[in-house]
User: Which sequence fits this backbone?
């Protein structure tokens, strides 16, 4: 409500100053739109937010301008990817000592299991890069960018199930209703692009577990923030944004005529009623019209070079795959979209883990690495923060029986791994450490709220000062917690 | 969607100047408007206070909002976080001796110099200044002055306004403009005069009829009605209230509050059957069930003496919360969540208090301790329910089974279209031996501490021994004549429904952090009226809609915009953007496509393909893939659209629909580019345009008449000659376009409604495009 009014107020002041005094309806619609464009309206909104609420964002010099978040939905197993635990192989099949579990609550899927047989990774690990970061053999491409990324092996969360855990990561609260990270950033930082949404969401489905975990559109919801801050899903297929396409039979010229007529008639309505909301609506219709060309333009990857496709891998030519989305993410970033959120489904390997996780890794490994390299070669990595990770980790013991070549893993909140790159993150390092069972963190724990606080910090935002007052309370992405992890900062 | 972050024209300074230059000068109004748009409050308070400090400082209106917002986090109701033993939320606490020697006082009435509070807020050292820098909170110079002056004037304390009993004090006011139509207007007029404003003239009848029709039914007036009731606006109110569509409009509001959904809401988001409860809501509104009974049945129908089946159905209200089926969750963690949801819903919907803020610790701002919270929670904690749906897809207990025979005989309001299946409906029930309730430390299900018993927050009204200690007693307490909040909260919501903003703009929060009422005496007057009317909602709505205040024109002028941009003083009627439901229903109604069936299972109208399927993990059963309905079901009113919580209907969400994840009593009302895309490209709007075009085409071949008629139907007024000629120009230009290629056939085949080949002419296509344009006019999207 409040932002709407801010917008109205800005529109009003503009009307007073520029619109009524300088224009008549004889003015062309093109200039009308430039007068009334979103740039103007949201500038007002943004100024108010900055000056009154957040004590002036940026609170300090930002390292990153934008974010690509490669969310791996389902909970990728750290033991097969980034956290090498030889002891598990040695103790294969033996029970997890109670002293290690130490009261950790378990999900209903393994809580009643008679034993907790430890399971070592079936994939070998090697050291990569100057810092000798250990990664497994199913990450042949990510291992090549070892010098560019920072692997955090000491992430932990509070939730033990997907819905609350993923909601927690994306909104800072386990229960739905709060704005997601992208919405907070859109609200706090505003937009730098002309004709595209500020917060774009891309989905892809993994091959490791086709029937896995669902996604929820509330994960990119604006919560109590203005709906301009909601994530807009870009979809492969003929209608890349919902309702973007003109109806069949409607030509662009026809649509243009309709919009011009609408602007004229709405302007007459404005003269009659004096309601600034009307001018705001005229501007939003213009913006919608622009999006109708800008969205297909950015999604049209035809002019990408063969070298690029080769770098991102064969799937990058198949719309809707992770690889294609990663490439698209780079294109969106180039257009100054603030936050691009990918979701790749299928990391929930309760059973048959070795085979399934290999496929999942194949889905994303090459394109994730390519994205980092591509940003780097274009000089964009320094100001673009790339994040790769899921909502929690997996248990070091098997869910169900271990066989010669198979096992599964349940959800584990106490320790898991993610990586970050670019945007002010210290490259080529490992942060944090787990015990030899991989079960508990023994050094430098990073809570989800710490991760969020650090991300905001890189964008020049003090997470305690990015607030929105709703229902009497000043809400934050990090709730009342979170500490910036200074060791991660370049 | 561009934001210039370094925009020279609208720099920081310019904005401040603007605020200074245009804001209203009296303090009371400043406070009102500041708190009604919460996010702006800091900025506006600063600017407005600078204009004038009132001669007489009022604790409730001037002081408490400052103390609450800047001081209570550390010096408020939350005992655990209280610093230096000082609390400023009670008079006693504020006057208590402090320090080791007990020789210092935060507040010494009449003596700012001896008051530590004054020294601390004016302190220059960062060690001493209050609020401390790390709180990220500050006091403006004016706010400091107010606190100081209040102490100077004797630091008079008052109880929070919302907890004082309402009083009916109708003001005497001279009415030179003949504005007053009933007592409501006297309150409004008095305040306008105090602020040097006059009410707006009465709106033209066609605007009023349209406004009344949408406010009360969510549908446009028919042309016949517009003509028949011209000059008989008050009669039209009565007429409209008697339509079934009234029940649907009221239900639309109630479904948000009750967080109604057709799915369970977590993870796989399985389908549930709650629509028979919705049918009951429609039935209750249709028969104008008094509000006290309406709420009592929903809260405690099962606990009434020999409850009827209908009363049991009503209790479905408290089972509308989300329920998980995610394998692996710890059931108790989620059961606690469900009880919390009921508690929160009760607080928001009926008390206007954010009780949920006291779930993990004492409330930071309002006098609700964590113990109070769990005592309220205890009322809802004895349901024989499980935290996890098992087996997958089962109806969560407790539920009743409704037979076809019952529907035929007693529960006739249930519109069951599939008589072959037995309905299992979740309802409320209490275990014979109530479940023991404990304060949960930090709100954690596995961290119980002190045992508590059912009790309500005392600051609202004591629960005492008069009421049974169960949900029925809770309902009796709620509707006890001495309860100060119930009627206020309810009438405020009805006011919000027709005026866009409540008298208390934070209709969800009447507490210390909530907005102050713009017209406190009017709110009281309405609360008392509502009870005098026997909690009759139709009567109250008639009273409000008959007022001169409601029937004003919504036109703005420079003075109104400058002095009262948010229309808190009501010198005009608001211009409101239609709700998501209204926009779609309007298109269906004017095109004649609308299916007017009342009640029944939810339906699946047009929705972009693949939205559910692309997000499902493979589970979900009937909610894994959206299978669009065919035929008449596509054209039902929007309250019947199937609501999948994790992927709600996108066009409704674009127009600020509530997610239904929890109780919502006030939606946002925004304007965004995505809304323009929906209105221009949603097949439902295109199809409605085409069908209306066809209807008009059948009536006349005269283009001018066709356009006039379409305009009239959609906006309830005839176009001006200029508007008509512009639309005619558009018609002929587009017509040329539709003569080329297959454009005509393509446009006219949008939607399931078939148009015969010989009728698919460029003329019809062009008329369709003109009607689409009219649907997109601001006037068609708004209520003027």
Assistant:
């Amino acid at each position: 409500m409040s932002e709407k009014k801010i917008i109205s107020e800005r529109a009003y002041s503009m009307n007073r100053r520029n619109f009524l005094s300088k224009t008549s309806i004889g003015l062309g619609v093109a200039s009308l739109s430039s007068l009334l464009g979103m740039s103007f309206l949201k500038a007002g909104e943004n100024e108010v937010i900055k000056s009154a609420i957040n004590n002036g964002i940026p609170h300090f010099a930002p390292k990153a301008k934008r974010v690509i978040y490669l969310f791996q939905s389902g909970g990728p197993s750290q033991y097969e990817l980034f956290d090498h635990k030889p002891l598990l192989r040695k103790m294969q099949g033996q029970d997890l000592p109670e002293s290690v579990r130490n009261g950790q609550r378990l999900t209903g899927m393994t809580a009643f299991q008679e034993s907790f047989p430890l399971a070592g990774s079936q994939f070998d690990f090697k050291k990569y890069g100057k810092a000798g970061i250990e990664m497994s053999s199913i990450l042949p491409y990510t291992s090549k960018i070892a010098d560019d990324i920072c692997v955090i092996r000491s992430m932990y969360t509070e939730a033990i199930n997907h819905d609350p855990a993923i909601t927690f990561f994306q909104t800072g609260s386990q229960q739905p209703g709060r704005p997601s990270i992208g919405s907070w950033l859109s609200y706090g930082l505003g937009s730098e692009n002309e004709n595209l949404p500020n917060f774009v969401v891309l989905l892809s489905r993994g091959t490791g577990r086709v029937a896995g975990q669902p996604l929820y559109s509330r994960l990119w919801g604006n919560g109590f923030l203005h709906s301009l801050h909601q994530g807009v899903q870009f979809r492969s297929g003929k209608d890349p944004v919902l309702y973007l396409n003109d109806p069949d039979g409607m030509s662009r010229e026809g649509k243009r005529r309709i919009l011009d007529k609408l602007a004229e008639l709405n302007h007459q309505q404005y003269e009659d009623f004096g309601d600034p909301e009307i001018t705001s609506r005229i501007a939003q219709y213009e913006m919608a019209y622009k999006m109708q060309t800008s969205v297909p333009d950015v999604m049209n990857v035809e002019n990408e070079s063969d070298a690029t496709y080769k770098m991102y891998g064969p799937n990058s030519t198949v719309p809707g795959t992770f690889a294609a989305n990663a490439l698209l993410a780079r294109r969106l970033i180039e257009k100054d979209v603030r936050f691009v959120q990918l979701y790749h489904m299928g990391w929930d390997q309760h059973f048959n883990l070795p085979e399934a996780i290999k496929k999942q890794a194949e889905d994303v490994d090459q394109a994730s690495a390519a994205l980092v390299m591509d940003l780097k070669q274009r000089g964009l990595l320094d100001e673009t923060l790339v994040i790769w990770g899921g909502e929690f980790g997996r248990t070091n013991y098997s869910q169900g029986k271990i066989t010669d070549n198979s096992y599964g893993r349940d959800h584990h909140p106490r320790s898991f791994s993610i990586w970050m790159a670019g945007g002010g993150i210290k490259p080529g390092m490992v942060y944090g450490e787990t015990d030899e069972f991989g079960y508990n963190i023994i050094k430098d724990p990073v809570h989800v709220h710490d991760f969020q606080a650090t991300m905001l910090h890189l964008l020049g935002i003090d997470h305690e000062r990015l607030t929105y007052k709703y229902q009497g309370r000043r809400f934050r992405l990090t709730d009342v917690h979170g500490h910036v992890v200074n060791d991660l900062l370049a | 969607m561009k934001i210039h972050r370094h925009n020279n024209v609208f720099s920081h300074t310019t904005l401040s100047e603007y605020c200074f230059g245009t804001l209203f000068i009296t303090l009371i109004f400043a406070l009102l408007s500041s708190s009604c748009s919460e996010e702006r409050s800091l900025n506006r308070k600063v600017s407005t206070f600078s204009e004038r400090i009132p001669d007489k400082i009022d604790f409730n209106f001037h002081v408490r909002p400052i103390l609450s917002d800047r001081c209570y986090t550390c010096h408020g109701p939350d005992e655990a976080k209280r610093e230096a033993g000082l609390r400023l939320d009670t008079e006693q606490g504020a006057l208590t001796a402090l320090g080791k020697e007990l020789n210092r006082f935060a507040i010494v009435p009449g003596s700012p110099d001896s008051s530590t509070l004054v020294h601390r807020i004016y302190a220059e050292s960062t060690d001493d200044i209050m609020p401390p820098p790390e709180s990220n909170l500050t006091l403006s110079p004016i706010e400091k002055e107010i606190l100081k002056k209040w102490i100077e004037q004797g630091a008079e304390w008052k109880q929070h306004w919302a907890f004082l009993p309402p009083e009916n004090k109708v003001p005497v006011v001279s009415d030179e403009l003949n504005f007053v139509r009933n007592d409501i207007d006297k309150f409004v007029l008095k305040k306008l005069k105090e602020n040097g404003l006059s009410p707006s003239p009465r709106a033209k009848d066609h605007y009023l009829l349209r406004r009344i029709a949408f406010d009360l039914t969510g549908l446009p007036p028919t042309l016949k009605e517009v003509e028949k009731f011209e000059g008989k606006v008050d009669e039209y109110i009565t007429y409209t209230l008697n339509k079934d569509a009234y029940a649907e409009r009221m239900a639309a509001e109630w479904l948000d509050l009750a967080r109604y959904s057709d799915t369970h809401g977590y993870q796989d988001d399985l389908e549930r059957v709650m629509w028979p409860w919705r049918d009951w809501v429609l039935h209750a509104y249709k028969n104008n069930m008094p509000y006290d009974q309406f709420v009592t049945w929903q809260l405690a129908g099962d606990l009434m003496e020999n409850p009827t089946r209908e009363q049991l159905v009503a209790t479905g209200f408290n089972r509308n919360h989300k329920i998980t089926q995610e394998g692996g969750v710890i059931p108790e963690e989620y059961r606690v969540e469900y009880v919390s949801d009921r508690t929160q819903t009760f607080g928001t919907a009926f008390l206007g208090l954010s009780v949920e803020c006291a779930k993990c610790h004492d409330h930071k701002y309002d006098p609700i301790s964590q113990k109070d919270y769990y005592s309220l929670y205890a009322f809802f904690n004895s349901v024989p329910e499980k935290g996890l749906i098992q087996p997958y897809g089962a109806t969560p207990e407790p539920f009743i089974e409704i037979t076809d025979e019952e529907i035929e005989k007693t529960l006739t309001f249930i519109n069951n279209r599939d008589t072959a299946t037995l309905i299992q409906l979740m309802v409320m029930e209490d275990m014979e031996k109530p479940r023991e309730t404990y304060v949960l430390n930090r709100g954690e299900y596995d961290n119980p501490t002190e045992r508590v018993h059912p009790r309500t927050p005392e600051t609202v009204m004591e629960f005492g021994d008069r009421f049974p200690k169960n949900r029925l007693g809770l309902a009796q307490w709620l509707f006890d004549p001495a309860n100060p909040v119930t009627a206020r909260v309810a009438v405020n919501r009805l006011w919000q429904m027709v005026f866009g903003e409540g008298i208390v703009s934070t209709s969800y929060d009447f507490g210390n952090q909530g907005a102050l009422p713009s017209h406190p005496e009017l709110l009281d007057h309405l609360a008392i009226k509502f009870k005098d009317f026997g909690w009759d909602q139709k009567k109250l709505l008639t009273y409000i809609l008959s007022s001169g205040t409601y029937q004003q024109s919504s036109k703005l002028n420079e003075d109104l915009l400058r002095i009262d941009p948010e229309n808190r003083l009501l010198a005009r009627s608001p211009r409101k953007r239609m709700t998501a439901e209204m926009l779609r229903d309007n298109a269906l109604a004017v095109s004649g496509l609308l299916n007017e069936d009342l009640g029944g299972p939810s339906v699946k109208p047009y929705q972009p393909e693949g939205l559910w399927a692309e997000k499902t993990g493979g589970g979900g059963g009937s909610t894994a893939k959206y299978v669009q309905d065919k035929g008449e079901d596509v054209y039902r009113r929007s309250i019947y659209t199937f609501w999948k919580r994790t992927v709600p209907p996108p066009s409704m969400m674009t127009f600020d629909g509530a997610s239904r994840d929890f109780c919502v009593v006030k939606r946002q009302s925004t304007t965004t580019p995505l809304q323009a895309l929906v209105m221009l490209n949603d097949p439902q709007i295109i199809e409605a345009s085409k069908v209306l075009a066809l209807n008009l085409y059948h009536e006349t071949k005269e283009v001018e008449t066709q356009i006039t008629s379409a305009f009239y139907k959609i906006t309830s007024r005839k176009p001006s000659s200029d508007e008509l000629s512009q639309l005619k120009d558009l018609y002929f230009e587009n017509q040329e376009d539709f003569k080329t290629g297959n454009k005509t056939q393509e446009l006219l085949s949008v939607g399931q409604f078939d148009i015969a080949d010989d009728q698919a002419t460029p003329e019809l296509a062009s008329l369709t495009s003109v009607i689409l344009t009219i649907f997109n006019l601001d006037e068609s999207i708004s209520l003027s």
